[in-house]
Write a structure and sequence with these properties.
Blueprint: H1 22-31, H2 51-77, H3 110-124, H4 126-140, H5 149-177, H6 186-219, H7 254-270, H8 274-277, H9 314-317, E1 323-327, E2 330-334, H10 336-341, E3 345-349, E4 362-368, H11 369-374, E5 385-389, E6 398-401, H12 403-407, E7 412-417, E8 420-421, E9 431-433, E10 446-451
Helix pairs in contact: 2-3, 2-4, 2-6, 3-7, 4-5, 4-7, 5-6
Length: 455
């Protein structure tokens, strides 16, 4: 810039042409041709790209993401976010939470199933997602970037689809691998990100479903995967912009490409699923850092949060520990020995956490929550209960349980597990255990049970 455009213009100077309108600028940009690099169609040379391979991967993701999203919604409902503010990790969700319902206590392994399937399937789908992005990457660099207002909307939806998918999968996997990476913020990040992604995904399915079906039929699903690399001829583009105009010779068949994706998914499945299956399979859960080597003995099963990490010391759970039971305008304070003197019950229940890991059934012993409610005169059908912990740091220091949960005869304030006193890391001297309840709501180091109380 030499500043000449700012100089005064003489009276005889030719008038400036009016600026071109936006559509004209777009047409001029299109006529100028794409710059060198990925915006040029000939930059992409793989002979495997095309509507058929993209459609196969898209069909797998269509089924997988529907299951993934559904199990995610169910697992979020398990937190009963409508009960109290401490349960609601996504405030202001509005219509997005309109589907929520009271989470049941039967079957007792329900949360273990929904969250285990959600996490395991999410990890196993990563190779399929990456392969799908590879198959359509030329579209991301299409030139010109915007051809019209309608094209701009389509590009925006594509940005939300790709960006939303990467965001949801990345935050989910990081939460599995790195505990407390998103302290207090993982739930809203993952929840709202999932809704943005699924909205873009639904729009994409509506726009591309017919094309996917035509592409799958065009080459014959049984025959195409058996075609060797030498026979992997370039397929017609069909206006998709996926087929390379000048492809290199094929070095792998489409069968080989799909086989690589399948083996990658199976490998991730093999090193993840054991955290939910339990038993000897747990040793295979290499991608579950809190799902391996839990120790031995009656308390030798998985721990999500240790007493030290929660800021719980010996003074909090020692001889001075007291349990306060409130409700109906009454209050009772009990020592551990007094709690142990109450009628005891047992229940065989698992623990399942948001990271996807779970235990097999453990035998818990303690006092039924409804029996503790009876101490303050609340009878056989107590209201929900607000549970407080001695925990000093970290999320989930308290939780609200529904009336259905407190009234279930398997819902306990447990003092023992597998015949032994609870260890400090498992919530000594007393913790809540409720069937089908997320692990973080089975509050440890319980100090207060407030029946009918609110956060």
């Amino acid at each position: 810039m030499d500043g000449s455009e700012d100089r005064p213009r003489g009276p005889d100077a030719a008038p400036r042409p009016p600026p071109r309108p936006f559509p004209a600028r777009l047409r001029g940009l299109a006529r100028s041709g794409p710059p060198h690099g990925p915006s040029r169609p000939e930059f992409w040379r793989s002979p495997l790209r095309g509507p058929w391979l993209t459609s196969v991967l898209g069909a797998v993701l269509l089924v997988g993401i529907i299951v993934l999203f559904t199990t995610g919604l169910l697992s979020y409902a398990a937190y009963n976010p409508g009960l109290a503010a401490v349960n609601d990790r996504t405030p202001g969700k509005g219509i997005l939470g309109g589907y929520l319902f009271d989470w049941p206590t039967d079957p007792p392994w329900l949360y273990r199933l929904t969250q285990g399937l959600h996490v395991t399937l999410g990890v196993a789908l990563v190779p399929v997602l990456l392969a799908k992005l590879w198959s359509v990457v030329p579209k991301l660099f299409a030139w010109p970037p915007v051809r019209s207002s309608a094209h701009a909307i389509e590009r925006l939806s594509l940005l939300l689809l790709v960006g939303g998918g990467l965001f949801v999968f990345t935050t989910g996997i990081l939460n599995i691998q790195l505990e407390y990476l998103f302290p207090g913020s993982f739930y809203p990040l993952h929840f709202y990100g999932a809704w943005v992604f699924i909205a873009a995904f639904a729009a994409h399915v509506v726009l591309r479903f017919a094309t996917m079906v035509r592409s799958l039929r065009s080459r014959g699903a049984p025959a195409e995967p058996r075609t060797p690399a030498a026979g992997a001829a370039t397929e017609p583009d069909g206006g998709t912009g996926l087929v390379a105009p000048a492809p290199d010779p094929a070095t792998v068949s489409r069968r080989g490409a799909l086989g690589t994706v399948l083996l990658s998914s199976l490998a991730l499945l093999a090193v993840t699923a054991g955290q939910s299956l339990g038993g000897p399979w747990r040793e295979t859960a290499l991608l579950a850092p809190r799902g391996r080597n839990p120790g031995t003995g009656p308390n030798g099963f998985q721990i999500n949060k240790t007493a030290a990490a929660a800021g719980v010391g010996a003074a909090d759970i020692g001889a001075r520990w007291r349990l306060t039971v409130r409700g109906g305008g009454r209050e009772v304070v009990l020592t551990r020995s007094e709690v142990a003197a109450l009628p005891q019950a047992t229940a065989a229940l698992p623990i399942a956490c948001v990271e996807g890991w779970s235990t097999g059934d453990q035998e818990w012993s303690g006092v039924r929550l409804r029996d503790l409610a009876a101490l303050v005169g609340l009878g056989e059908r107590p209201p929900g209960v607000f549970v407080e912990s001695a925990q000093r740091s970290g999320a989930f220091r308290a939780a609200a349980l529904s009336a259905a949960q407190t009234g279930d005869p398997r819902s306990l304030l447990a003092l023992k597990v597998n015949g032994a006193d609870l260890s400090a890391d498992h919530g000594s001297p007393a913790r809540v255990i409720v069937p089908a309840n997320p692990g973080v709501h089975n509050t440890k180091w319980v100090t207060v049970l407030d029946f009918g109380g609110a956060a």
